[in-house]
Amino acid sequence: MRYMLLIYGDEVQREKITGQEEEAISSTAATVRMQNGKAIMTDDPFAETKEQLAGYNIVEAGNPDDALSIAARHPCVRAGNHAVEVRPIWVRS
User: Fold this and answer.
1) What Rg value do the Cα atoms of the chain yield, rounded?
2) In this structure, are residues 29 and 90 in contact, taking their beta carbons and an 8 Å threshold?
3) Residue 17 pLDDT
4) CA atoms of 72 and 58, how far apart (whole Å)
5) Whole-prediction pTM
6) Which stretches within the chain are classed as H helix?
7) What is the pLDDT of residue 62?
8) Contacts (Cβ under 8 Å, ≥6 apart) of 3
9) Contact 39, 79 (CB under 8 A)
10) 20 to 30 Å CA-CA from 67: which of 4, 18, 41, 86?
11) pLDDT (tens digit, 0 to 9) for every residue of the chain, 93 residues total?
């Protein structure tokens, strides 16, 4: 399955979404950040208020855990100054 790695950096502001929208998104996304030299994975899809989209990558992975492992090795995460959100890419047939 393909996964999109969305790379976030600083942003001044972002809009809030409703709780219902947040719940629908949360079930399909996770975020990886570096904290104290370790990759921390959370079951949320949201960048912090100060972050903005800086780029993205598309990767092939066998399952969500493999995609998170790939994200944890991303140079932007390893540098400690970016978060990478991981989302499955749904392909219409």
Assistant:
1) 13
2) no
3) 42
4) 14
5) 0.62
6) 19-26, 64-72, 75-78
7) 94
8) 58, 59, 60, 61, 64, 67, 70, 86, 87, 88, 89
9) no
10) 18
11) 899 988 876 543 334 445 554 454 465 678 888 888 888 887 765 666 566 778 889 999 999 999 999 999 888 888 777 888 898 998 777
72's tokens: 């944890």
Side by side, the strands of the sheet bearing 51-60 are 38-42, 30-35, 83-88, 2-10, 51-60
Which structure tokens are listed for 81?
């100054």
Sign for the CA dihedral angle at 13, 14, 15, 19 comes to: negative
Q: Which amino acid is at 4?
A: M
**What gap in Å lies between CA 78 and CA 93, rounded to an integer?**
36
